[in-house]
Amino acid sequence: MGTPIGDFDEARPAPDCLDRLVAPVADAVRAWRGTVPAERLLYVDTDPAIADTAVFVEHHGRDLLDASANCVVVAGKRGGDTTLAGCVVLSSTRVDVNGAVRKQLGARKASFAPMDTATGETGMEYGGITPIGLPRHWPLLVDAAVVDTEWVLIGSGRRRGKLIVPGKTFAELPGAVVLEGLGVSPG
């Protein structure tokens, strides 16, 4: 099967690749109930050595630069309480942690979660975290530009492999809140 974006040898429906996904992502695909059928969530096998965006798009197609998204885990703190959340923005932007995230979480302070917290709480590999399969009770903040992108390349839960999914899928994930301005230009 060809891919709707990027230059990949093969894309397979994610339900046919459950053995290549970490448990939380495989469980989410198995239990999928979105308006986009699970078969439209595509898995592509990739080299983990080129997982970082700049190298990845150079190898698999420049069109991916505008169609790639990153998922990061943030921690919002207020008093003694900490709220973990997922944030999804296009790769050409960065998460507005101190503005949009802090405001949305009602936090006094917000920051990127430490790597061991992000991987330990998600069951995913650092550099491959995906919103599909995040803990259901977490808020999932999604930049509107991601939802408006026809096809989006995102991590698969591991550094090896990526998912290609319709952008509108992200608005239907558990805990999803679509925000304008979550992703801001770097610099």
Element pattern in H and E: EHEHEEEHEHEHEEEE
> What is the residue-averaged pLDDT?
94
Q: Please mark out the parts with pLDDT under 50 across 5 or more consecutive residues, or reply none.
A: none
- SSE-based structural type: alpha+beta
Pfam family, one: tRNA_edit
InterPro entries: YbaK/aa-tRNA-synt-asso_dom_sf, YbaK/aa-tRNA-synth-assoc-dom
Protein name: YbaK/EbsC family protein
Domain YbaK/aminoacyl-tRNA synthetase-associated: 65-169
What tags apply to this protein structure?
YbaK/aa-tRNA-synth-assoc-dom; alpha+beta; four-stranded antiparallel beta sheet; single chain; five-stranded mixed beta sheet; 187 residues; YbaK protein; YbaK/EbsC family protein; YbaK/aa-tRNA-synt-asso_dom_sf; 5 helices
Short description:
20% of the residues lie in helices and 27% in strands.
Describe how the helices and strands are arranged.
Blueprint lengths: L11 E2 L9 H8 L11 E3 L8 H8 L8 E10 L2 E10 L3 E2 L1 H9 L3 E4 L2 H8 L17 E4 H4 L3 E5 L6 E5 L9 E4 L3 E2 L3
Parallel strand pairs: 4-7, 7-10
Antiparallel strand pairs: 1-2, 2-9, 3-4, 3-6, 5-11, 8-9
Pfam families: tRNA_edit (PF04073)
Organism: Streptomyces lavendulocolor
Protein name: YbaK/EbsC family protein
